[in-house]
Structure formats: structure tokens, C-alpha cells
# Entry
Amino acid sequence: MSRAFPFAPPHVRESAGGASRGFVASRVVVRRVLEASAILLLLSIPAMAAPCAAVAGSTVILKSEEIDPDVFVWDSKQRVIDYAAGSWRDTRDVLEHSLLAKPGTRALVVQCDPGVVKPKYVADPLDAVGIRLTSGPNKGRYGWVTSQDLRAIQRSR
# Structure
């Protein structure tokens, strides 16, 4: 009886030739390939990400939760991520790559990337939100803020 494949049909179990061993070996290889494929398929399915704080196309108001309610609107997503993490070269870098939006400035959400901003002194990650300013002196400009700097506009019924 074959030890590698004890539940084989009788003609395979009783055969002592190399053909039955090849049959068993090929089935083992096929089974291992299928198992590996199933594992890779499961690993390739993205985990359910937390939803973004802002939905693309929605109108929001900018207002910081910090002591100063003005909001830095950054020229790139990477810069808002770096700034929130406490990493910037100098004040000149901040002034060259951001603009200051007064509290109450309206904006249209263009894009939202959940959980990519990891602030230095806050445990939970924030969303990076791409916006287009729709009011104020910088109307029409695009930029990036954190989800902490957004307020939803309450619509009257």
C-alpha cells in the first residue's frame, strides 16, 4: 500500500511501478500550488478601509481645531503628511508651500485618502483631503488639508 496516498484506487495502491508514484507526486504538487494560490488570493484582497471623513464632491468649511483657527492649505499631499508628523525644514518651507485660509473659508472636496496622516501628538491617524477653495482671496486654488480642519456644512431643511 502506498504511504503517500493511502486512499488511492486499488489499481494505484497495488501497482509498484514508478507511474503511481508520479501520479501521487503530481497530485501533491497540484494541491500545493492550489493552496499557495488561495493564500495569495486572500492576501491580495484589500482590507476594509475606514471611510474618509469627507466625500469627494461635498462642500465643507475650513476651521482648525487648534488655538489659531486659520488653516494651512498645502500644495501637496506629502507636505501635509510631513507637517502633521512634525517634519518641516524651516519657516520658509512652510510659507512657500502653503497658503493660509481664514476660518469659514468654503471648499469643495476633490479627493480623500483615509488614514495617511499620522500626527506627531495624536494617536489616531487622520485623512488627507484634497480640496478646491470656493471662497476667500484664494478662490479656485487647489490644496491639501487634514480631516481635522474640515467642518461639514449643515443644510437647512
Notes: DSSP finds four helices and seven strands in the chain.
